[in-house]
Amino acid sequence: MNAKIAGIGFYVPERVVTNEELTKLMDTTNEWIIERTGIEERRYAKKHKETTSTMGAEAAKIAIERAGITAKDIDFIVFATLSPDYYFPGSGVLLQRHLGIKDIGCLDIRTQCTGFIYGLSIADQYVKSGMYKNVLVVGSEFHSAGLDFTTRGRNVTVIFGDGAGAAVVQATEEEGKGILTTNLHADGEYAEQLMYANPGCHGGVFLGDKSELDYKDEADYGDMFLTQELIDKEAIYPHMNGRYVFKFAVQKFPEAIMEACEATGYTPADIDMLVPHQANLRIAQMIQLGLKIPNERVYNNIQKYGNTTAASIPIALCEAWEKGLIKDGDLVCLAAFGSGFTWGAAMIRW
């Protein structure tokens, strides 16, 4: 018995933020952003009205309906995000509340850009083991609430957008159908190359590299997690070493795809649709070129939505399916690389 994606859905906020709009806030240009990332616009959620969990709920409702079940039929939730509503509890229980579900388990995972693939792998194992029948996997992000909208933060801020995607994973007895394999990897050696250091319990002022963590021995209690010093030094925004991330991404992305091919006996030429994490259009194009996959068999939508981290794969997967680019029986490969570093892939017979 395999596990299959029985229903998918996505939600993006109404507000469209163009590159031109960002040029009014920071020293950048539309041409500069497109050349380096491929992004033309992104979506921003409504502050104080939308949250990571409410967006996730909107995507989940669509996925549940398309799976032909009701919210009451969901018996486990996996919620992937790096931008939760609260530091704790996790957004999974809030999603559960939005959907009117009680008592079932909720698992929040923090694997950033690979969050949906990690979540899909977890759901796959639960369903195959018979432990759960309908697992809801959600990836949702509210990046715009925590970005640095100044020239100092432009290299990160221009990349990210808000949105959510969801999938219902359930059992299938169709031979050769469903999730054929997943592979998950991580290497914490490079954690500080792409990170959101504060607030946190490390007690240092992080300004760019782990060697720059400035520790101070002050009071014994309550002076580390989020201090005025961190705010004054503007050390409360994401940090990314773009060149370092790019270098590892173009190496690990194809490795994960090839691992999925080898596990299933296929080659890149057999893939009907590759849906990569929407990190950077240039990364996706380099991977596509290296694996010799033609344009019509790779789906990218970063141009419209930016990088939505854990939400990017389910948003792109759902959009490609809605456009009829993914059909019954197609071989679909999902692949991601991101902060941690984490990376992985999934091979699915649709």
Describe this structure in words.
By secondary structure, the chain is an alpha+beta fold. It has 3 domains: 2-172, Thiolase/Chalcone synthase (Peroxisomal Thiolase, Chain A, domain 1), CATH 3.40.47.10; 178-190 and 241-349, Peroxisomal Thiolase, Chain A, domain 1 (3-Layer(aba) Sandwich), CATH 3.40.47.10; 197-236, no CATH class. It contains 11 helices and 15 strands. It has helices at 19-22, 30-37, 52-66, 91-99, 115-129, 154-157, 228-232, 242-264, 281-291, 302-305, 312-322; strands at 2-11, 15-18, 41-44, 76-80, 105-109, 134-141, 163-172, 178-186, 194-195, 204-205, 214-215, 239-240, 273-276, 331-338, 342-349. A 5-stranded mixed β-sheet has the order 1-7-6-4-5, with helices on both faces. A 4-stranded mixed β-sheet has the order 8-15-14-13, with helices on both faces. Helix 3 (52-66) packs across helix 4 and helix 8 runs parallel beside helix 9. The two termini are 15 Å apart. The model has no long low-confidence stretch (mean pLDDT 93).
Chart the SSEs and their pairings.
Layout: E1 2-11, E2 15-18, H1 19-22, H2 30-37, E3 41-44, H3 52-66, E4 76-80, H4 91-99, E5 105-109, H5 115-129, E6 134-141, H6 154-157, E7 163-172, E8 178-186, E9 194-195, E10 204-205, E11 214-215, H7 228-232, E12 239-240, H8 242-264, E13 273-276, H9 281-291, H10 302-305, H11 312-322, E14 331-338, E15 342-349
Parallel strand pairs: 4-5, 4-6, 13-14
Antiparallel strand pairs: 1-7, 2-3, 6-7, 8-15, 9-12, 10-11, 14-15
